[in-house]
Amino acid sequence: MQWTEIAVTTTNEAVEAVSNILMEAGATGTKIDDAADFAALQPTFPGELLDKSSVPHQESGAVVTAYYPATVAITELVPDITQRVQMLTQFGLNIGSGAVLTKPVAETDWATAWKKYYHPVRVTRYLTVVPSWEDYQPTDDAEKLLVLDPGMAFGTGTHPTTALMLQALEMTVRGGETILDVGTGSGVLSIAAKQLGAGDIYAYDVDQIAVDAAKANLDLNPIAKDVHVAPNDLLKGINQSADIIVANILAEILVPLIPQTWPLLPEHGLFLSSGIIADKYPLIRDNLVKTGFKIIQTLKRGDWYGIIAEKPGADD
After folding, report:
1. Same domain for 196 and 56
2. Is residue 106 located within the same domain as residue 202?
3. What distance in Å separates the CA atoms of residue 107 and residue 25, rounded to the nearest whole number?
4. Percent of the chain residues topping a pLDDT of 90
5. Do 173 and 249 fall into the same domain?
6. pTM for this one?
7. Are strands 121-122 and 127-131 parallel, antiparallel or unpaired?
8. Among 56, 130, 200, 252, which one is least packed by beta carbons within 10 Å?
9. Is residue 183 marked as binding?
């Protein structure tokens, strides 16, 4: 079968949003060639000699590539994708050139080619993201594996915003907590929380494609088989209380989410948030404080911020 490749040239900070746009436009899969992922590439096991120069990679920025069957009207699709990519600047994202290019490609060329770009990456002290096809073994007893299929959209777990939330979960989960994962995407945060000892987890995403991707990734991680996943618009209509609420989404979407989290958290409950580019940090911080939250800790990777906020108790 003949397929069409649509490649969007962008930046590290915009790859997940661009992937989402391409999947919503009907892509059967995406691959992300990100200079940041290459920079984080490490040997799979101690003592392995990794010749990074032999690995195809982006020198800078990122390219998000999607594939569409011959039945899709590409000439009608490209202008819509281009417009939606350009609109990401309204959310404070740097999209780089945002160029959208197309070319025909044979099915056998794309079905497995993207696999060479993904390798196990130890994102935090305890958490390692592992592509589903890799036969990777933990290097020590403390290492926990998050098995993902990067062929789906919604990220590989190594983007700074996701890494910040993995770090925040590692810092706050003590065992047995009920967690709400808002905008679950790939499901990586729910998987991580389970690996860290969380109890019941309820994961939501407004996008059914993301819900399906999350379910597929949860199935790859037996420890996360009991995570509840469902489509939902943020926390509208949700009455499930939680010890921790986690959200890795754009800052503009965090703003309406913040007041929704307040009634669902007990005293000293935690709200972990990321997806906050540097110039949006004051906006989120101020909205958290206005709602009543206490900022416990601010995390930072590059131009991205994560926040650990607490609902104060009567004794505070």
Report:
1. no
2. no
3. 19
4. 53
5. yes
6. 0.74
7. antiparallel
8. 56
9. yes
pLDDT in tens, 147-165: 998 655 445 566 788 889 9
Determine the Cα angle at 13 with ends 99 and 273, to 5°. Answer: 145
In a domain, 143, yes or no: no
Q: What is the pLDDT of residue 114?
A: 57
The reply to whether 248 sits in an annotated binding site is yes
For residues 135, 141, 146 and 150, what is the CA-based torsion angle, rounded to 10 degrees? Answer: -40
Please name which of 61, 66, 62 lies closest in space to residue 24, comparing C-alpha atoms: 66
- Tell the burial category of 223 from Cβ atoms under 10 Å away from its Cβ (0-12, 13-18, 19+): middle
166 and 73 in a common domain: no
* DSSP per position, 189-227: HHHHHHHTT---EEEEES-HHHHHHHHHHHHT-GGGTT-
- Residue 162 marked ligand-binding: yes
- Can you read off the two tokens belonging to residue 16? 């997940």
Token pair recorded at residue 63? 């390219």
Number of structural domains found in the chain: 2
The token pair that represents 67 in the structure block: 């594939």
Average pLDDT over residues 131-137: 87
The answer to whether residues 14 and 88 touch, using CB atoms and an 8 Å cutoff, is yes
State the pLDDT at residue 5.
87
Q: Do 13 and 89 share a structural domain?
A: yes
Q: Are 307 and 248 in contact (CB under 8 A)?
A: no
42-69 pLDDT, tens per residue? 444 444 434 444 445 556 688 998 888 7
Assign residue 209 the CATH number of its domain. 3.40.50.150
Quick one: 30 and 85 in the same domain? yes
pLDDT tens sequence across 268-281:
999 999 989 888 99
Torsion (CA) 72, 151, 57, 33 in degrees, nearest 10: 60
